[in-house]
């Protein structure tokens, strides 16, 4: 991301902060509560040095309360005292955001300067590597042309030598040259247009042409040119010839249409697109769950479970090193039934969160007579929490099966449930799946959960 101008990077952070929508079906007090938790998380990121993530959350808070939340249908019902309190927080957040903006801009400028220097070096290395590859290709061309010329020279020498042997053979047998063919002239190369070129097709004896390995090679004249050096001298008593004395034609122009490509491995270019756009989390952050959470919850819910009544609890914790750590299990006042459970003491939960300085990370409930799944009522409950925090968990404990599942809504589930205005139990689509097993959960067996029963 350092290749971008500092102003562009800041604008992208602002765009990321504005990427959320207000759902008027979610109680407006949830948004006010979510705003408080944004501030808590922003402060954690700021203290840990994740300035971009802190900047995004501060910007998101301001966007929520200065711009978007006013469109909520219940905004007019918010108490003036609450609006005044939020206005004061917005003013404070603006000041922090401006300081962060200057700090980030300065850092982005420095990173961009470093990138420009690295890019200059990278381009120079790339040009040098390209020059090396070009040189290797030229050398491969030259060697290939020399090889072709050498093969053609050997072929011409072999043909000329064979012609001499054929001539001697006819003279020894008293046989003249084939009809229409005059006596073979001594091999006296000429540089003019009257040069005599040996043509093996004019001989009636068995031809001693080169092997098929040389087929397809360019002709001698096309490679070597019209000039030919004098032939080597041979000892007639010895049929073999001295390749070391082969004629050395005057090569004036060579052209290879298929150069051999270089097999060297080019220097890899930097894959700058692999860098994250921002240092803020780009996916679901990990949620760490204490190893004894399920056991502690099932123990406190046992009396209800024995009667076939559902029990629910809320999960509280904090953000650290870009992970959510579940530390608290709160059992609020509630009304349970065989197939549902309604929370009645949410404000009590918020009070504990404020005192313990923790944030909401999900909820847990039992299914005394059912398997692990999310009913339509469960999905609507989960939608409200997951809309505020994508990592929010819905833990379901099946008493019947003795199974615990960490669940969340799929993108299809968030879309369908978010657009549904029905209440109580009602049908929803089965395909694509609307809920799934959460993959961002890890169990920390070294940690013990803090249980608070608020009933």
Tell me about this structure.
This protein is α/β, with parallel strands linked by helices and about 450 residues long. It has helices at about 5-15, 30-50, 50-70, 80-175, 220-225, 295-305, 345-355, 375-390, 410-420, and strands spanning about 285-290, 310-320, 325-330, 335, 340-345, 360-365, 395-400, 405-410, 435, 440-445, 450-455. The strands form two sheets. Strands 1, 2, 3, 6, 7, 8, 9, 10 and 11 form a nine-stranded mixed sheet that branches. Helix 1 packs across helix 4 (about 80-175) and helix 2 runs antiparallel to helix 3 (about 50-70). It is elongated, with a radius of gyration of 43 Å. Residues about 185-195 and about 205-280 have low confidence and may be disordered.
User: What proportion of the residues is helical, as a percent range?
Assistant: 40-55%
Rg to the nearest angstrom?
43 Å
Low-confidence stretches: 187-195, 206-282
Q: What is the count of DSSP helices, taking H or I runs of 4+ residues? A: 9
**Morphology call:** elongated
Average pLDDT reading: 81
Class of secondary structure makeup? alpha/beta
The N- and C-terminal alpha carbons lie at a distance of: 51 Å
Along the chain, the helix and strand elements come as HHHHHEHEEEEHEHEEHEEE
Please indicate the percent range of residues in DSSP E strands (runs of 2 or more).
Answer: 5-15%
Major sheet description: 9 strands, mixed
Count of extended strands: 11
């Amino acid at each position: 991301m350092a290749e971008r101008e500092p102003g562009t990077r800041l604008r992208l952070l602002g765009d990321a902060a504005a990427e959320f929508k207000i759902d008027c079906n979610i109680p407006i007090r949830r948004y006010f509560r979510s705003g408080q938790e944004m501030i808590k998380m922003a402060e954690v990121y700021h203290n840990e040095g994740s300035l971009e993530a802190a900047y995004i959350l501060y910007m998101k808070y301001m966007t929520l309360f200065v711009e978007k939340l006013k469109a909520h249908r219940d905004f007019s019902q918010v108490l003036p005292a609450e609006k005044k309190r939020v206005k004061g927080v917005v003013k404070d957040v603006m000041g922090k955001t401006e300081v962060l903006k200057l700090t980030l801009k300065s850092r982005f400028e420095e990173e961009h300067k470093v990138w420009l220097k690295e890019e200059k070096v990278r381009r120079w290395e790339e040009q040098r590597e390209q020059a090396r590859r070009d040189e290797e290709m030229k050398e491969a061309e030259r060697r290939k042309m020399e090889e072709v010329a050498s093969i053609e020279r050997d072929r011409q020498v072999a043909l000329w030598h064979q012609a001499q042997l054929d001539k001697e053979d006819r003279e020894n047998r008293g046989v003249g040259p084939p009809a229409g063919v005059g006596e073979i002239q001594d091999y006296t190369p000429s540089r003019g247009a009257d040069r005599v070129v040996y043509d093996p097709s004019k001989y009636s004896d068995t031809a001693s042409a080169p092997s098929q390995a040389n087929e397809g090679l360019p002709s001698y004249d096309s490679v070597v040119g019209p000039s030919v050096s004098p032939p080597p001298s041979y000892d007639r008593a010895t049929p073999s010839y001295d390749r070391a004395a082969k004629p050395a034609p005057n090569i004036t122009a060579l052209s290879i249409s298929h150069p051999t490509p270089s097999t060297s491995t080019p220097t890899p270019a930097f894959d700058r697109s692999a860098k994250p756009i921002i240092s803020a989390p780009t996916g679901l952050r990990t949620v760490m769950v204490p190893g004894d959470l399920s056991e502690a919850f099932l123990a406190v819910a046992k009396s209800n479970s024995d009667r076939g009544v559902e029990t629910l609890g809320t999960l509280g914790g904090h953000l650290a090193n870009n992970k959510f750590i579940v530390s608290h299990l709160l059992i609020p006042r509630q009304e349970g039934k065989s197939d549902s459970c309604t929370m009645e003491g949410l404000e009590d939960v918020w009070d504990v969160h404020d005192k313990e300085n923790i944030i909401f990370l999900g909820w847990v409930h039992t299914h005394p007579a059912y398997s692990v799944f999310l009913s339509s009522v469960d999905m609507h409950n989960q939608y409200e929490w997951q809309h505020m925090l994508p990592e929010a968990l819905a833990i379901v404990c099946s008493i019947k099966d003795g199974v615990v599942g960490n669940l969340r809504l799929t993108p299809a589930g968030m879309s369908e449930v978010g657009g549904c205005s029905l209440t109580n139990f009602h049908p929803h689509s089965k395909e694509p799946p609307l809920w799934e097993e959460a993959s961002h959960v890890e169990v920390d067996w070294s940690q013990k959960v803090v249980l608070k029963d608020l009933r």
